[in-house]
């Protein structure tokens, strides 16, 4: 791990300097106060616009410089609904990009109005809302099952959601969607970016849009196009109210709301890109640059927010505080979080003041904090290296599980023998103790097999290579290494033998995800096998390709039934969701004591662990409960395509195994069968089976 000299890091007192409190517009009585930070500005003006004509400036008021480089003005013209912008001038030189004629979005704006592409105004939002006594669900981490989805894609074609609500915040809160989520059993909805964003000119020239939304314009304003037409007509206040109503209704159903937030870069792109906000306010302080003022781009998006400066770090912290408290969201998944943890030398450190401030902030104590633990810069891959309080997307888990069920099987078909055995897979199944420290435990890892970025579950078992021609980049975009396997033919097929094997592969992948130690994340639509026809980078596809299709074939309904059964089994069996890693020979509360057996029911030997041809495993986990009943499970994993007889192990105090689930079943129907220890069961090729040990 790269650790900078202590002097290179931003000091916590600077980040938490009280002089940086109250930035943006604060309403009080019959007036409002605007506070803007800029260390290099020589002049800042507040420009107020007519409510109906965004080109008609009705007043220009200068701001005064105060302590801590904070500029401010108090005016009765600043009130709820006021449309405004700021203009900033300063000393011109390397790193500065001032233009006193450019109208800029104020960074702490709670609302935005658009006069056309690239022509934005800030809007004062009062923001009051009656929460009706509805609080946050506060789902414990060990019971958390995350469902990652896109606001528009979730409901755009849902037949039971009224057309006026399709693709909106209100649509997600509709009873039809809440019923799907609660019956599935997920606890937390993780939304792709909902901060105001715009599409890059390059995409617009191709007739495409930035569908995913990883191109933030402002960190405080909800994306207006996701609101209903009625709310959009009502303006930013109504859009924010619809968003809060969505949060309240999901909370009433016991569902958490986690936001995927993009603080690592902004819409302003590289030098020569639009000057819409931070670049025109204090370019040198807000964006990472070399001494010659060249941007240091560790995000691949043209610029990188410089969280080594107090103002930029505080902007992120204040945005998170706002959404967690004023909007009542339950957590955050920080996109390219390694960027936010880079110091003044542009090196990652887990003790970065911003990362620690987020964890230690009393205003964020109940928030779920999830890091995407990488970026594209030097030293950017940091999985397992974030500090206590952080949870991380576990790409090591993703890759190993895909390998075991897909690319290893493909390799074995070609070479006659698998490339590796079951050891690495078992480590991921048991919580990735080789990635996350004992102090952080298995819940530090967010396990996932698919995400918005990459193949869907269906496409993972149906395509060997990406098919991204529609993205306009000659199939150069998107990952080339997918660890996928088409099982004999590329894409669509009518061959029932291939289709049956693909369906089983999906059940194996879902079963592994939902029966592993750690926190599982499901990508929306994977529960019923949606396809993107082989596109593994559909960020620019706002079409039926990316919208969930709610008309399902019988096999999709069967897969959905498997997903529901697996999530219910996870909730019912605490041995599957340990909070801590067990210690050999010690009693560790809220851990799972794990024992490993081979297909003969014998304790796994070192030779069996390291034998590449040995891919059958029996995994027994016994809980060490603090608040729940004692629980013990047995999971049988068979990772080759040749069927095998497996002898169930003889375990002290276990008189029977009760069948709970099998991936070999087209529809879940293996519940309740009782089998004695020492009995022999037949395991079909590449399959799993779960038992409760009694």
From TrEMBL:
Q: Which domain of life is it from?
A: Bacteria
Q: Which InterPro entries match?
A: GH, GH13_cat_dom, GlgX_Isoamylase_N_E_set, Glyco_hydro_13_N, Glyco_hydro_b, Glycogen_debranch_GlgX, Ig-like_fold, Ig_E-set
Gene Ontology molecular-function annotations? amylo-alpha-1,6-glucosidase activity
Sorted UniProt keywords: Glycosidase, Hydrolase
**In its UniProt record, which GO terms are filed under biological process?**
glycogen catabolic process
Q: Does the keyword Membrane apply?
A: no
UniProt domain Glycosyl hydrolase family 13 catalytic: residue ranges: 144-570
Q: Where is the stretch described as Disordered?
A: 471-493
Q: What is its EC number?
A: 3.2.1.-
Q: Is Aminoacyl-tRNA synthetase a UniProt keyword of this protein?
A: no
Family, according to the entry, reads as follows: Belongs to the glycosyl hydrolase 13 family.
Q: What's the name of the protein?
A: Glycogen operon protein
What organism does the record attribute this protein to?
A: Microbacterium immunditiarum
């Amino acid at each position: 791990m790269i650790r900078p000299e202590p002097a290179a890091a931003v000091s916590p007192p600077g980040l938490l300097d009280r002089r940086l409190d109250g930035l943006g517009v604060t309403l009080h009585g019959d007036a409002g106060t605007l506070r803007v930070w800029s260390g290099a500005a020589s002049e800042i003006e507040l420009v107020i616009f007519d409510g109906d004509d965004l080109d008609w400036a009705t007043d220009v008021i200068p701001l005064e410089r105060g302590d801590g480089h904070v500029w401010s003005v108090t005016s009765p013209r600043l009130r709820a609904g006021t449309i405004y912008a700021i203009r900033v001038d300063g000393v011109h030189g390397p790193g500065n990009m001032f233009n006193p004629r450019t109208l800029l979005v104020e960074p702490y704006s709670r609302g935005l109005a658009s006069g056309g592409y690239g022509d934005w105004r800030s809007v004062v939002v009062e923001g009051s809302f009656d929460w009706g006594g509805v609080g946050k669900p506060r789902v414990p981490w060990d019971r958390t099952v995350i469902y990652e989805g896109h606001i528009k894609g979730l409901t755009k074609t849902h037949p039971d959601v009224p057309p006026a609500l399709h693709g909106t915040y209100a649509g997600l809160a509709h009873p039809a969607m809440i019923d799907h989520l609660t019956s599935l059993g997920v606890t937390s909805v993780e939304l792709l970016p909902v901060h105001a964003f715009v599409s890059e000119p390059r995409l617009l020239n191709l007739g495409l849009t930035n569908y995913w939304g990883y191109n933030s314009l402002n960190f405080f304003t909800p994306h207006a196009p996701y609101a209903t037409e009625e709310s959009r007509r009502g303006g930013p206040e109504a859009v924010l109210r619809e968003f809060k109503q969505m949060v309240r209704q999901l909370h009433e159903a016991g569902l958490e709301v986690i936001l995927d937030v993009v603080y690592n870069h902004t819409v302003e792109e590289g030098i020569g890109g639009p000057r819409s906000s931070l670049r025109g306010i204090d370019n040198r302080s807000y964006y990472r640059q070399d001494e010659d003022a060249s941007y240091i781009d560790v995000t691949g998006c043209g610029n990188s927010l410089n969280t080594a400066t107090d103002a930029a770090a505080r902007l992120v912290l204040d945005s998170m505080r706002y959404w967690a408290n004023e909007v009542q969201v339950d957590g955050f998944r920080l996109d390219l979080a390694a960027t936010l943890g880079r110091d003044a030398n542009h090196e990652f450190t887990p003790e970065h003041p911003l990362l620690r401030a987020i964890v230690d902030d009393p205003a964020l104590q109940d928030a779920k904090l999830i890091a995407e633990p990488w970026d594209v810069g030097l030293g950017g891959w940091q999985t397992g290296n974030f500090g206590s309080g952080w949870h991380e997307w576990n790409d090591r888990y993703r890759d190993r599980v895909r390998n075991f069920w897909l690319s290893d099987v493909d390799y074995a078909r070609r070479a006659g023998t698998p490339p590796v055995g079951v050891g690495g897979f078992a480590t991921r199944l048991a919580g990735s103790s080789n990635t996350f420290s004992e102090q952080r435990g298995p819940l530090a890892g967010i396990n996932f097999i698919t995400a918005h970025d990459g193949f869907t579950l269906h496409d993972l078992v149906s395509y060997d290579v990406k098919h991204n021609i529609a993205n306009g980049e000659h199939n150069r975009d998107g990952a080339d290494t997918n660890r996928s396997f088409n099982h004999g033919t590329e894409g669509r097929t009518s061959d029932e033998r291939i289709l049956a094997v693909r369906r089983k592969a999906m059940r194996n992948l879902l079963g592994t995800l939902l029966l592993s130690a750690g926190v599982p994340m499901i990508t929306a639509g994977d529960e019923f096998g949606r396809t993107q026809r082989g596109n593994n980078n559909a960020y620019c596809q706002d079409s039926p390709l990316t919208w969930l299709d709610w008309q399902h074939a019988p096999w999709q309904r069967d897969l959905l039934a498997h997903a529901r059964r697996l999530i219910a089994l996870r909730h019912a069996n605490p041995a599957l969701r340990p909070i801590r890693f067990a210690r050999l020979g010690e009693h560790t509360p809220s851990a799972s004591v794990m024992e490993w057996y081979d297909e003969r029911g014998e304790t796994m030997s070192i030779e069996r662990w390291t034998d590449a041809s040995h891919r059958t495993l029996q995994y027994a986990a016994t809980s060490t409960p603090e608040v729940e009943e004692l629980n013990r499970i047995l999971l049988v994993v068979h990772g080759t395509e040749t069927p095998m007889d497996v002898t169930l192990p003889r375990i002290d105090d276990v008189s029977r195994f009760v069948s709970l689930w099998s991936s070999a079943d087209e529809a879940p129907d293996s519940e309740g069968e009782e089998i004695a220890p020492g009995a022999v069961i037949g395991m079909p090729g590449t399959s799993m089976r779960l038992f409760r040990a009694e």
